[in-house]
Amino acid sequence: MNLSVVIPNYNGEDILRKNLPKVISSVEDAEIIVVDDASVDGSLEVLVNFGKKIRVIKNEKNLGFSSTVNRAIKEAKGEIVILLNSDVIPEKGFLPPLLSHFDDEKVFAVGCMDKSVENGKIILRGRGIGSWKKGFLMHSRGEVNRMDTLWVSGGSGAFRKSIWDKLGGFSHLYDPFYWEDIDLSYRALKSGYKIVFEPKSIVIHEHEKGAIKSTYSNFKVKTIAYRNQFIFVWKNATDLDLLFSHLLWLLYHFVKAFIGMDMAFFRGFFSVIVLLPEIIKYKLKDKKFFVKKDKEVVNYLIK
């Protein structure tokens, strides 16, 4: 099968220089696209040195993760697209177990095992679980001894391009980052497709060297996370009891945020209000593909 590897980059000059040669050696026969999201460091100069080994797409202005990835996948030639963050290094032999699942035409995406470097320790990640609690989808790391998962990470996973195109890819509503991969995976599951976690496909993920931590303040990151959590519910939930529960729990969350002086919560909420017409538009469009209820998507997952 034809493969494309898409690597979004923003101000990743040093990690591109370090990691890109390892990616190239791991996927020798694949098309490799690095899409630069208007970096202001020396990223483009670094990329030029790789010559014809990679294809470079340049954003004229900073678009955010979802829009940047969507642009590259639109131009990708492979029937399977592997998304790798610039701070991700594939281990030797990661590709065959990842691709083996695509023999099943209902498989949309397969996630890698992340050896996540966090505070000097290695945490095994890549499988996600979640449940609806207090009006929101609460997601967390799942144990890595199972292959079912609630989402495939946009930083280390493989996706079937035909289904990606059908579902519309990542939603730009989540720009600049967070929740876009959970949203797409959730929509795929509600649409009757399969997603898989493959523990034998291993990558090293040096999160702390990525663009988010080096570019955005903690308050800004928290505000965006709150905003996107609201977007996810308003855009994807269709079970009436879940929507009713969300409305009932809003008062609780507002009071809790007020007592805790959590200004990021309020800023996140009010920033999403202006997006409501567009959220409704996408909700109506996505709903046409749904064949499962919300509870069916999350109830089969266990720790």
Set down the secondary structure blueprint:
Layout: E1 3-9, H1 13-26, E2 31-36, H2 43-48, E3 55-58, H3 65-75, E4 80-84, E5 88-90, H4 95-100, E6 107-118, E7 121-125, E8 128-133, E9 136-141, E10 156-160, H5 161-167, H6 180-190, E11 194-205, H7 211-215, H8 218-236, H9 240-259, H10 263-273, H11 276-287, H12 294-298
Parallel strand pairs: 1-2, 1-4, 2-3, 6-11
Antiparallel strand pairs: 4-10, 5-11, 6-7, 6-10, 8-9
Helix pairs in contact: 8-10, 8-11
The first-level CATH class is given as Alpha Beta
Sheet-strand content, in percent, reads 15-25%
At the fourth CATH level, what is the homologous superfamily? Spore Coat Polysaccharide Biosynthesis Protein SpsA, Chain A
Question: How many domains make up the coordinates?
Answer: 1
Number of helices: 12
Mean pLDDT comes to 95
Q: What is the terminal separation in angstroms? A: 33 Å
N to C succession of SSEs: EHEHEHEEHEEEEEHHEHHHHHH
Question: Which architecture would the CATH scheme give at its second level?
Answer: Alpha-Beta Complex
Poorly predicted spans: none
Q: Fraction of residues in helices?
A: 40-55%
| Biggest sheet statistics | 9 strands, mixed
Instruction: Write down the Rg.
Output: 19 Å
Number of strands: 11
Shape: globular
What this model shows, in words?
With 303 residues, this protein is an alpha/beta fold. It has a single domain, classed as Alpha-Beta Complex (Spore Coat Polysaccharide Biosynthesis Protein SpsA, Chain A). 42% of the residues lie in helices and 23% in strands. The chain contains twelve helices and eleven strands. The strands form two sheets. Strands 1, 2, 3, 4, 5, 6, 7, 10 and 11 form a nine-stranded mixed β-sheet that branches. It has a two-stranded antiparallel ribbon with strand order 8-9. A hairpin with a 2-residue loop joins strand 6 and strand 7. Helix 8 crosses helix 10 and helix 8 packs across helix 11. The longest helix has 20 residues. The chain is globular, with a radius of gyration of 19 Å. It starts with a strand and ends in a 5-residue tail after the last helix. The model has no long low-confidence stretch (mean pLDDT 95).
